[in-house]
Each structure stands twice: as C-alpha cells, then as structure tokens.
Design goal:
The complex is a heterotetramer of chains A (235), B (497), C (84) and D (117). Chain A has 12 helices and no strands. Chain B is mostly helical and 497 residues long. Chain B has a domain of 217 residues. Chain B has 20 helices and 2 strands. In chain B, strands 1-2 form a two-stranded antiparallel sheet. With 84 residues, chain C is mainly alpha-helical. Chain C has one domain. In chain C, 85% of the residues lie in helices and 0% in strands. Chain C has 3 helices and no strands. In chain C, helix 1 packs antiparallel against helix 2 and helix 2 runs antiparallel to helix 3. With 117 residues, chain D is mostly helical. Chain D contains 5 helices and no strands. Classes of the chains: A mainly alpha (235), B mainly alpha (497), C mainly alpha (84), D mainly alpha (117). Chains A and B meet through helix 1, helix 2, helix 3, helix 5 and helix 11 of A and helix 1, helix 4, helix 5, helix 6 and helix 8 of B.
Amino acid sequence: MKRALVIVLLAIVAMPLLAAMAAMPRFGSAEQPAYTHVAKRYLERGVEEAGAENVVTGVILNYRGFDTNGEVTVIFTACAAVIAVLAGSRNRQDQREAASSVPESLVVRYVVRLLAPFIALFALYVVLFGEVSPGGGFQGGTVFGALLIVMTVAVSRNQAERLLPLRIRPWLQIAGPLSFLAVGTAGVVLTGWYLGFPQGATAATRLMLMVLEFGIGVGGATVIASIFWRLGDEA
Amino acid sequence: MWWQWPHWLPLAVLVPLGGGVVTPAVARGSARRAWGWAAGVSAATVAVSLALVIRVARGGPFSYAFGGWQPPYGIEFRFDEVSAFAFVVAFLGALAIVFSRQYAPHALAEPRVPYYYTLLLLDIAGLIGFSVTGDLFNMYVFMEIVSLTGYALVAISGERIAEMAAFKYLVLGAVSSLLALFGIGMLYGVTGTLNIADAASRLGAAASTMPVIVAVALLVLGFMVKAALFPLHVWLPDAHAIAPSPVSAVLSGLVVKLGLVGMLRLYGVVYASRAVDLSSLNWLLTWLGAVSIVMGAFFAIFQDDIKMMLAYSTISNIGYIVMGFGLASQYALVGAAVHIFNHALIKSALFLAAGAIIYQTGYRRLSDLRGVGRGMPLTAAALSVGAVSIVGIPPTAGFLCKWYIALGAFEAKRAAFGFALVFGALFIFVYYIRMVNAFYFQEPVHADVTHVGDPPLSMLVPVWILAALCLIMGLAGKVPLTFVAPAVSRLLGPLGG
Amino acid sequence: MTLEMSRLFDAGLMVLLVLCALAVVRTKDLLAASIVFSAYSLVMCLVWDHRGAPDVAMTEAAVGAGVTTVLFLSAISKTVRKEK
Amino acid sequence: MIGILWDNFDYAVSVLLFLIGLYCVIAKNNLIKKFMGLNIMETSVFAFIVALGVVKGGSAPIMEPGARPPFINPIPQALILTGIVVAVSTTALALSLIVRVWRQCGTIEADELRELE
C-alpha cells in the first residue's frame, strides 16, 4: 500500500520534470544559451583574464571566486558542526586503546607505509598543477585527507594525528577561509575589489592563486581527517 | 560620507564569516573568551550593516562586483530595500549572542560552547549573504551555510529528542536545497546566466516556457519547505521547540525567512521578465497561506509546552506572509515584506523571554508556569508585550503589516481572505490569552515559581530591547512600510500593480 | 561515426549508472550497499570524464567514491550492518 | 516527446536517477539508507548540471598548447565542484547525527524511532 502511494507520488513528480527536460535547449548544442552567453567570454579570454590555463580553475578561483569562498566556509561549517554534535561524548583515552585493538595485517601496513610518500607527492602534484591540468586545491587536499584516513586505519591513529599537531589544528581547519580573506584583502589593495586579481598571468596573480590552492588543500585535508577521527571517537 | 565606502557590502558578510571561523582557535576552549569574541564580532556586524541601511535609505539600491568582474561575468552583491533584512539579522543575532552569555554554559556541555558561537556567527553570515547576493548560485551556497549551521544548532544540546528533530530537519532541508539547486540549474540552462538581474532580462527570450515553469515550481517548493508553509511544516515544531532558546529565536525569527526572502528574489526574476504567468501559483500560495494561518493557530491552542506553542505560532505567521505574496497587490506585498522584519523582532522577543523563564524556573509547560508573572515580573511583562504584538493589537508592531495584508486582500478583490486573516488573528488571540492568563491570574502549581526573580541582565536586557522595539515599531509603523514600498513597486512595476 | 560510437558508450554508462543506483536501493546489507554506492560514484566519474569534465570527475572520485564511502563505512561500523 | 527525450537522453537519465534517490529517501526505513538515497539524488542533480555544459565534439576547457576548440562550458563544472563539497558536508553531519541517535535510542529505523518519541 505504502509502496503504491510512493510510486504514484514519483509518477506525479516525474511528469513535469520529464516535460521540462524534453523542452530544454538541445543537449550538446553549441547554440544553447548556456554556451553562447557568459561562458563564451570565459572560454575566449579566460586564460589572459583569469591567469590559469585550466579555465575551470580560473572560474572557481577568479571569476566566481566568492562562491569558492562560500564553499570553504561550508566545509569548515561541516567540521564545526560534527565537532559540536559529537563533542565530549566519551573519554578520549579509551578510544585510543579501542582503536589500536583492531587486528591489523602486516602486509597492508607495510604497503601503506611504502605508498604513503608517493600518495602525498601525488596530492602535492594535484594542488600545484591545478592551474594547468585537471585538479586543484580541494582535490589534492582530499587525496591527502584520504591518505591520513588510510594511515589511521592501517598503521596507527597516533602516527596520522602527529602530521596535524593538535595545537595548531584549529588554525589548519580554517586555512581555506583564512587564505580567501588574505587574498581577498590583497585584491582590495591591488585592484580595489575583494578577490580582485591583477589582470593577466603576472607573478602576483600566480602567487595569489597558489595561496588559495594551498589554503583550500590544507583546510580540506584537515577537515576531512578531523571529521573521520571525530566520528571514530564515538563508541 | 562614511557609509558610502563601497567595501561595507562585502564586509557585512566577511566580518561574521571570518569572526565565526576563528572563534574556536581564539577561544582555546574557554566559554568566556568565546562569548567575548563572538559578541565583539556581532557588534561589528551590526555597525557594518547599519552603514548599508543608511546608504540604501539615502541613495537607493547599490551593488558590489566581486573581483571587479562586472555582472553577469562575476558574482554581484546587490543591496536593495528588501536586503535591509540583513540589518535585522545582524541585530537579532547580536542580541541572541548576548543572551547566550549565561544561557550557553548552562544548556551545553563545556567543549561545545565555542563551536556554538562559531555556528551562530556563520549562520548570521549566511543569512546576510543570502539576503544581499545578486547571484543565483551564490544564493544556494549561502542557503547551505545557513541550513548546515541550523541543523547543527538544533542538535547541539545533545539530548535525544534534539538529535532526532535535527535529523528530520536535515533530511527535509537537504531535499529542499536540492530542489532549489535543480531549479537554478534549469534557469541557467535556459538563460545562460546566473546573475539574477541578467536572468530576469534574458528569461523573456527563452525558447520554451516549460523548463521555466518547472524551475519556478522547484524553487518555490524548495523555498516553501525552508519557510515551513503548511503542509511542508512537519520539521519545524520539534526543531524550533527543542533547540536552545537563543537558537530558537534565530531559527524562528530569521532562518525561516530565508525561504521568504528567496521568494521575493524569485518574483524579481519572474515578474520582471513576464516569461511565465504566475496567477495560478499565486492562487495556490494564497490558499496555502490561509490554511497555514488557521492550522498553525489551531495546533498552537493545544500545546502546553510554551516553546512548542511559539513554534506553531511561527507557522501561522508564515501563513500571513505567504498569503501576502499570493495576493500580489501593492498593499499586500508591502505588508508581507514588513511582516518579515516585524515577525523576526516579535518572535525573537517571545523566544528569548520564554528561554529566560525556562532558565530561571526549569519548567517549560504552561501548566507548571502558572503564577510566573509574580515571580519574574519584568520577563513576563516582556513576553506579554510580545504576545500582544503578535496578535496584532493596534499600537504594536504586528498590527500595521497585518492590516496592510488585509487591505491588499480587498485591493485584489478577494475580500474573503481579508476576513480569513482577521479570523486567524482571533484564533491567535485565544492562545496568547491563555498564556497571559496562566502567568498572571491562575493559582501557581509550584510555589517556587512565584519568587524566582528576574534573570541576569545579559538575558533581561536583550529581551527588553526587543519588547521595546515591538512597541516602537508599532508607533513608528509607517517608517518600514514606506521604506520597502519602492522595492515592491519595482517588483510589480511591469504588472502595473 | 565516432560520434555515434561515443554516444553508444555514453548510453552504456548510463544504463550501468541506473543499475548501480537500483542496486544501492535494493541491497539490504548496508556494507554492501555502500560499496555499490562507491561503484556508482566511480561510474558517475567515468561519465563526467567522458563529458569533458575531468576536474569534476576527479573530485567525484576522491570525494564521492572515497570520502563519502569511508564516512558511510565508519557510521555503519558504529551502528548496524543490516537494514531491517 | 519520446523523440525529443532521446535527444535530451542525458537529462532524462538524471531525472530517472533523481526519482530512484527520492524513492529511497521516502520509502526506506533505515536512516543510513535514506542518506544513500539522498546522495544519489544529489549526484543526479550534479549530472544534470554537468550535462548542461556539454558541447558535441568538445574537449575539456584546458588551454594547453595544441588544444583545439570547441571547448566544454566551464561554468557548470565550477558550480558542481562547489556542489560536491556541500554534499559531502551534509553527509558528514547527517552520519554523525545518525551515530548519536543510535547511541541514544539503540535503533536507526525510522518507524521504531517514531514509536520512541
């Protein structure tokens, strides 16, 4: 009975959605408004104006940089929310022991240790070359965060946590928003607008983009690892 | 003049945002330090947003282009009369933070307190950003900041029911955000732009209206879940009643208004372009608004829990505003827009006063709180002022905007709704009378209630500032009405409303 | 002709995507469901790479298939494995 | 309409995935499963928006030496990068709430929780 009702509901939702999809500008057409209006300028002049060969990077950090400012805030919000919701639910000392009592495989442990530097290097590469190839701060940061998670599971949590010292962790978690505030303010000084970049691929632009990429990366990695650890603290 | 400095506009968002993210690092675990920092940041936010309101009152709407990219190529902040909501947000947020000084360490576990302030400040930042942004996708990003902080703030007390209420809120909130994102995507596909003003001008040229209609429907549905319009209100009563009281004040006063401000922005796109005919949508909204008024009031009558009653009363008041939107006449829209501001003030006053009473007595049921008018005279008086305002009795803030919505109903030649509105006000009157009656005229059940005394000043002062504003806004009721009128005329302009 | 081939490839991926989504819904074992969800994300990532969005594909691979799945697994290990 | 839908096949698949996810959110009882459904819904909307940017025969918008137009529209991609981050943030918060609910109530089935209320 319930199932039938749900299916009727889905059918009701499906009708207008499909009708709208059928009437959308044709898929893949080069004449659709989405391609001929704003995107046209980005594609034609994006490299000179935004200072990155990868136009997507140019869009997220330069043209629509403020969206990304919001994005890094969202991910820090998630971190703060998870900490606030889970805080103080259990004595930390207990879980350290609980975590280390998980049976582990020597082979996995060895392989993780062997691969760890290469994964870290890959993460760094993804961050550094985000302007000219696919990837960027957040992707690299996620890869690094994933490395920390793998190390926590396969090697030991203490060792993984040592990479993000507890004393400065609250600052690492907000590296993303802070780098945006810093670069944004630099933009006010240099161009008169928040998050403004000097025109073209000057050294200043490159430096500002790099600061943003690293801020997003460090912040992202710390937040992801912190959320995972905090979730692990729960019994 | 000082208020003309262009960077006040981004600062209104960046101050609470930056201040919010660094709170845990600054507080280093101390609740006192966290409060001091948060109070300072929120005071700065009030100052910045005041500059914006002065500027819009003197010179009309203005905008700020991030990175110097002129719209539609970059993200634009646009401050118009409706954006003055940002000032209400900053002001009420600051009062909620001041109120939390003693309340938060009492209601929350110690390590959560700095994060509580972080989340409150980020919530304020998100709300301000939402009400000033001129970009559809940026609107979504701010909506998500507000929603995420909202879910966490409901759950932060760590009680079982709080977490369950937060989860319910989260699922519905996430689905509604997704519907809005779907709608934004469709609008982008049809117009090729994300800038609201640019979309409005390009929508008329859309090859087919079907995607536009569905996109509008999705956005309206998403916003109405956020605004808790009946029958999409199921998440609201639990979430608002169980959250810590300053959070309830922010959620009920400000966060539900996100959907309504979003609606005004959406109207801005659609009315201006005349791409689709909204009359059937408006017909539906008028009806749902009317049903919402009655149902919210009806459920409120049966609540014994004081905060639960206030939460249902929010649903009823959202009904007034949505009905005003649906009537779509000059008077009704002005009344609805001002009621967004006034309801924020009144409902925050009520929730903060109720929070102070619960903090002092430890009871939250009306039947337990009998006689509290004697024990906490100043707080109970503030609560009564709020109650009188929300009913809409003439010299208070609630009266003029409801009167304008009723006038709008006659103006739109739908007098029946005008009467529905008056009828709803009577209903609301009944349940607030019940509350006042319990406070002052019934025999106390618990003897301690009659001599607990008023709460500390950090609670009493915000409560009375808000109660006083309820009276002042009633006496000076014309000021906000004339203030938003140009925005409404601009909105309805092409329709000749 | 090549265009048609790529269209067919796309269609195949789409079918796989829908099958994965259905499998996530149907699987009663939450652990298995999260692994299938991870596969779904990976197929989605292929679709996006194929559509010329390598940045998005990379993010989806790292976040959708990686972090989200890990979080699901972590939550399942703290709660129950079987759906009732 | 079917013929047009075939042209806009990618959009139709997004709608289908959206419906599957919605079914999972509404009909499933387990909170974790509900959230998997929500994640499917999220990716479906993302897939729709990414599909908006596609241009037939286009290549990724990376202007390396030797890259030739037409390039794919970069805006939807930029939006979805933000969208994915938002999605994972919501998921993280939801899962920590689920874990807390489990600890306090001993169940994460929606109907059993409703009885507990």
